[in-house]
Design goal:
Number of helices: 20
Number of strands: 17
Strand order of the largest sheet: 1-9-4-5
Strand content: 5-15%
Helix content: 40-55%
Structural class: alpha+beta
Shape: flat
Largest sheet: 4 strands, mixed
């Protein structure tokens, strides 16, 4: 029997000692949480659709990971995709295929913390079939000298220890006993979920509990029966629904039905489902819940799930099978095979792609084909070092040789450059054609531009926003005649930056990324040259480094940040004061913002003409049509119009001062955004050199 966790080194001396120790500590039956509890979990798995869906998904996703073998004795650790061992794992027995077999194995492990395989052998002792057994049926856990005992619908079965592979999720309370699964750990939550559903079911079933009791006071039993008959005749049936009743009798009615709203049963059920999903480590986006998701969370959901759920479980599976089944095969056949899997984390593919793009000559063609999910070439072409079709030697010689492996004793020039194709063999005297922009360029450029990492944008800008926030807050307190320093780095600034991230940067990032991606795809589709593609990309980036897109961004963000800082400073001041919405009073003021002079308490919302609410002009919570290119600003007063009683010249001076402050902060933000977008521009130029 294979025990996961025993060191391979000196295993012959360790195993007898360990078997005795394990039997002594666990008293053979494992001191587990009870076979009945494990069986009950299997039954709940079939009764709770949400629980089954979560466990099934984990099982399927682990089972979908592709397996292969490596020959560690071969020169290049040869990758083997066709082998009798893989055939056995892909068709383990006559009752199930490999996907079902591995999914069931994972479901048992997740649900009750154990999985057991029974190895069926031929007369020579070779494993010919594998049958997953229900761990809940284990009544005696075998050892070197004792058989395993299973009690199932076929009666009691005894199986030799050498024909069992056993894996368990170790229970810290009984480290040498039976395993404990995620399902067992959540047994209380499962019980509550079942009771919720039963309570709902009771509501719709007739359990001898009437919906209400009608009491006719002061009448005899005979009169009650007559009244009941008359009541049912008059009001029973769909045709009599909602009919009024008129009576001079003294009637008392008691309602007995459950009230879902009072019991909060809907909210409790929702909380239970979210709790299950989080416990099982499944992001909500992967089960179709996109209610509060954004593009970044949706894009990264699978990678987070793969890294924290799928890979740890497949690692355990691989180690157990390697130590037992593969080890036995290696010893019998004098081989040195290792079971491996293809990493399901797509983030690793992006890293590999970046590495290949930076130096393609470090990889052979089959490595590139594998990344593109193409079959490997079995001939010598697959082992040649990859050379891009647009490769040009440093001396400009078009009749160039491709770097080759030292092991490849190739003297034929045409064979050395076979990957480039005969059409790329151009005579020295001919003019070099313009290089085309291809799919490999598209993928490489997306990586080099770093468009997929919005966190970089946030990190580049946060210090600038903090500076603007601090400056505007200090000036506002001085406007109040206070010398108190403005505290910018508090929770309110963090909350504001989160709003900027969610409402501004995400949209900005998505717009720019989509624009670049569409352009690159069009270049590939239309067979554009690199020169043409670079020129069009430069046009897009120019808008963000010196064009209208940059000005729109800094106008919007400077106004919002200054006004937010003014509001926060007023709140910090402790002065009993009102806030006031002021416009530029010109024909450019949008219709929804014609609320000049509207005053509100500091913690209340302004109400725009269209009914939208805002804490200040440029509030990121407003839709784009109400905040982009915002020019209104925030003023304060003591309950009367702040500009009342002053002449037009003074009003103009006040507006000019406010506008000058925003213009000053626009310059600060402009430089920061230009630097950030400039880095993208530099990456572009580096790529096309």
């Amino acid at each position: 029997m294979a025990w996961f966790g025993i060191n391979k080194k000196n295993s012959k001396q360790v195993i007898p000692l360990m078997n005795g120790l394990i039997q002594m500590l666990s008293m053979n039956n494992g001191g587990d949480l009870g076979t009945q509890n494990k069986q009950a979990l299997n039954k709940i798995f079939g009764r709770s659709p949400y629980y089954k869906m979560l466990v099934d998904k984990r099982g399927r996703d682990v089972a979908r990971v592709k397996l292969y073998l490596k020959d560690l004795d071969s020169k290049d650790n040869e990758k083997i995709t066709e082998h009798e061992l893989l055939d056995l794992l892909n068709k383990p027995n006559s009752e199930m295929i490999g996907m079902q077999f591995r999914k069931l194995t994972q479901v048992y492990y997740d649900n009750i913390g154990e999985w057991v395989w029974w190895l069926a052998r031929d007369v020579r002792g070779n494993v010919i079939e594998i049958f997953p057994m229900n761990p809940a049926d284990i009544t005696v856990r075998g050892s070197k000298n004792e058989k395993w005992q299973f009690n199932n619908i076929n009666g009691v079965q005894y199986i030799d220890n050498k024909d069992i592979i056993y894996c368990r999720d170790i229970n810290p309370a009984q480290p040498y006993g039976r395993g404990i699964g995620q399902g067992q750990a959540t047994s209380d939550e499962l019980s509550i979920a079942e009771k919720i559903m039963k309570l709902i079911g009771v509501t719709f079933d007739n359990k001898a509990v009437p919906p209400f009791i009608i009491n006719f006071k002061g009448v005899s039993e005979t009169e009650v029966e007559a009244a009941q008959s008359k009541w049912l005749t008059k009001f029973k049936g769909i045709a009599n629904y909602a009919k009024p009743m008129f009576t001079n009798a003294d009637i008392d009615i008691k309602k007995l039905a459950y009230n879902f709203e009072e019991t909060k049963i809907v909210e409790l059920g929702e909380m239970q489902r979210n709790q299950f999903r989080e416990i099982w480590g499944i992001p909500k986006e992967l089960i179709g819940d996109l209610g509060s998701s954004n593009k970044a969370s949706s894009t990264n959901a699978w990678n987070i799930y793969a890294e924290n759920v799928v890979i740890p479980n497949i690692d355990i599976f691989i180690q157990v099978v390697q130590y037992s089944l593969i080890k036995e095969y290696n010893e019998k056949n004098n081989t040195n095979l290792e079971l491996c899997y293809k990493n399901p984390n797509k983030a690793d593919e992006e890293f590999i792609l970046k590495a290949i793009t930076s130096n393609p000559f470090a990889f052979v063609t089959n490595e590139i084909r594998a990344l593109a999910h193409h079959d490997e070439w079995e001939d010598e072409r697959g082992k040649q070092i990859f050379v891009p079709l647009n490769f040009t030697s440093r001396n400009g010689n078009s009749n160039r040789e491709t770097p080759v492996n030292n092991d490849m004793k190739t003297t034929d020039t045409e064979e050395k450059i076979s990957l480039m194709g005969k059409k790329n063999l151009i005579k020295e005297e001919e003019e070099e054609p313009e290089e085309m922009f291809g799919k490999e360029d598209l993928l490489g450029l997306m990586v080099l531009l770093g468009l997929m990492d919005i966190g970089v944008m946030r990190d580049e800008l946060i210090n600038t926003y903090l500076f603007v926030f601090q400056q505007a807050g200090d000036k506002t307190l001085k406007e109040f005649g206070l010398e108190t320093p403005f505290i910018a780095e508090d929770q309110k600034f963090n909350d504001y930056m989160q709003l900027v991230y969610d409402k501004s940067l995400l949209n900005m990032h998505e717009t720019l990324s989509d624009g670049v991606r569409e352009l690159l795809q069009e270049s590939v589709k239309n067979n554009a040259t690199k020169k043409e593609t670079k020129a069009k990309l430069q046009e897009i980036l120019d808008k963000y480094t010196k064009g209208y897109a940059l000005e729109r961004i800094v106008e919007t963000e400077a106004t919002a940040t200054v006004n937010n800082a003014r509001l926060v400073s007023a709140q910090q001041s402790g002065i009993d004061i009102l806030k006031e919405w002021l416009t530029q009073k010109d024909n450019k003021v949008r219709k929804n913002h014609l609320i000049d002079g509207q005053t509100k308490p500091l913690n209340s919302n302004f109400v725009l003409v269209n009914g939208n609410l805002a804490m200040y002009p440029g509030d990121p919570n407003l839709p784009p049509e109400d905040r982009v290119n915002e020019r209104c600003f925030l003023a304060f007063n003591n309950g009367y119009n702040s500009l009342a009683g002053i002449d037009e010249e003074q009003k103009t001076a006040y507006w000019n001062n406010q506008r000058a402050e925003i213009e000053e902060q626009k310059n600060t933000l402009r430089e920061s955004y230009k630097n950030m977008f400039g880095k993208l521009e530099n990456s572009l130029n580096d790529f096309f050199k």
